[in-house]
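Recall from the previous lesson that a structure prediction takes nothing but the amino acid sequence as input. Here we apply that procedure to BLUF domain-containing protein from Pararhizobium mangrovi. The sequence below is the only information supplied.
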Amino acid sequence: MSTVIYRLVYYSRNHIPDQNGELDAEIKQILERSRVNNDKDGITGALLFNAGCFAQVLEGPLDAVERTFERIQQDERHGDVSLLALEPIAERAFGSWAMGFLGRSETNAHRFAEVGTKSGFDVARLSGDEIHSVLKRLAIEEEAAAA
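The prediction returns the following tokens.
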């Protein structure tokens, strides 16, 4: 019996203060916890952090994806959480990533040029498909650079 896989795309506003390295430490903690929980729950995906916003794609069984999204909505580090897409998909785009992070490096800042031009680095102005496409392209580039 095969399980239907769903893709959920959302964005939120960062509510983590950026003082004394707190922001980097909190993002690191979010990623570490996400990778453990997502691996256990059969969820893959990628997280983008830029200009005070998070954008994320989650892929997995519907109940696991919905539970994860509910935790995110209740997390005080996220504000104005907005669901952009929730739909069944034929296959995972981030199958090898329990939670990939694409964010604050200079290399990725250059890669975000297209997003910045289109949205002023405001992920709230992008659709779920656009965020998914950007994250998928960046993940492919990240994997190629690591190889």
